[in-house]
Specification:
The protein is α/β, with parallel strands linked by helices. Helix content is 41%, strand content 18%. The protein has a six-stranded parallel β-sheet with strand order 3-2-1-4-5-6, with helices on both faces. The protein has a six-stranded mixed β-sheet with strand order 7-8-9-10-12-11. It binds guanosine-5'-monophosphate and manganese (II) ion (MN). The site of guanosine-5'-monophosphate has 13 residues, from strand 11 and strand 12.
Length: 341
């Protein structure tokens, strides 16, 4: 556990905070995506290589398309292994919070997380809550994985990024940047990707596992959603997708099956807002994507108890599918007209 170089600022404070500790824990957000799991596992590999015992906790199980990530089998799922996960969080000297910035984003682990005394935040979403002893918050970063890479390098630990860590970090870069096509993708992102590739990422395997490993059910559900459950409103530049519990059951829904569906709505010519409403047993999950200057993070924060990024945000509603859609339709014209293209 040594840090060869420790420049000034939060990086130095993080190094000082970790110095002398033996047990650490990493936690990420509910419904963890590629960046959440990739950054958590990537950082865990590096810190383990530096001598720490590191537990990775996720609030609920990640989608199956992330199971292949190196180290995924050892992740503690709070909803499933509550005792072990609680023990990991409470006995860690420091808990690192990755890819989320409000403590209510960790589902049922919230109470335990709030009780943890020393927390570190590494995240790229808007509007961070002030709960960490050391906070890295950069809304310009395309992925938390990119931030983890930069922090590890600034701590002088780049040599500890082996093929496994590199593969995890690269995965988050790919998933959060829409395969390097969202405007958050910067020349620096490409340089980080190139360095990770040199450290042993097999990009063909990563892309194959993420993009070309669909179940037949998922692909048929996508076809059904686009042909039967999508409404296009050209005058508002909006496409709306919706799926009920009944629809999901019909296609044997498994978590992660609807990942990316909303982006198809946004890919329609002339559309600058895509909304996806999915009925869950308890709530309706809302996913919004936009192009240009349409701040969907603000919209979900104000109306759907959520947040995220300017062009990609999510939230939820307790009003049922019909009620949620009705309220969305009432709010939509004003939101669109307040932000002309
Ligand atoms: P998705 O629509 O894929 O679930 O999420 C898009 C973005 O919005 C992600 O960056 C995610 O972290 C954020 N997000 C999704 N759901 C919520 C939510 O309920 N609350 C907040 N604050 N952010 C969310
Ligand atoms: Mn992210």
């Amino acid at each position: 556990m040594s840090f060869p170089s420790a420049p000034a600022g939060p990086v130095a404070r993080l190094s000082a905070l970790l110095e002398g500790r033996s047990r650490l824990a990493i936690i990420t957000h509910y419904n963890p995506d590629g960046d959440a799991v990739g950054s958590s596992l990537g950082l865990a590999h590096v810190l383990r290589a530096n001598g720490f015992a590191v537990d990775v906790v996720v609030p609920n199980a990640p989608a199956a398309f992330l199971n292949w990530l190196p180290g995924a089998a050892d992740v503690l799922v709070f909803d499933r292994d509550r005792e072990k996960a609680t023990e990991a969080l409470t006995n860690a000297g420091v808990v690192l919070c990755l890819d989320f910035n409000r403590q209510d984003r960790v589902g049922k682990a919230e109470e335990v997380l709030r009780s943890v005394p020393v927390k570190v935040l590494i995240d790229h979403h808007q509007d961070p809550e002030d709960f960490a002893a050391v906070a890295f918050s950069d809304t310009s970063a395309c992925a938390t994985c990119q931030m983890v890479y930069d922090i590890v390098c600034a701590m002088g630990l780049a040599h500890l990024i082996g093929p496994e860590a590199a593969t995890c970090l690269y995965t988050g870069l790919v998933t959060d940047s829409g395969s390097f096509r969202f405007p958050s993708t910067k020349p620096h992102t490409m340089r980080v990707a190139a360095d990770l590739m040199e450290r042993g990422v097999n990009i063909e395997i990563v892309h194959g596992a993420i993009m070309d490993d669909n179940s037949e059910h998922r692909l048929r559900l996508l076809g059904f959603t686009l042909s039967e459950r999508m409404t296009v409103l050209p005058e508002l530049g909006t496409a709306i997708l919706q799926l009920s519990q009944e629809d999901l059951k019909r296609f044997n829904f498994a978590p992660g099956d609807t990942e990316g569906f909303v982006n198809y709505g946004l890919s329609i010519r002339g559309i600058r807002l895509a909304a996806f409403f999915m009925e869950r047993p308890d709530v309706v999950k809302v996913s919004l994507r936009s192009k240009g200057d349409l701040p969907v993070d603000q919209f979900t924060r104000e109306h759907f108890n959520g947040g995220g990024h300017r062009n990609a945000a999510g939230g939820q509603s307790g009003e049922g599918l019909k009620g949620t859609l009705q309220r969305f339709m009432e709010l939509l014209p004003r939101f669109i007209n307040d932000h002309p293209a």
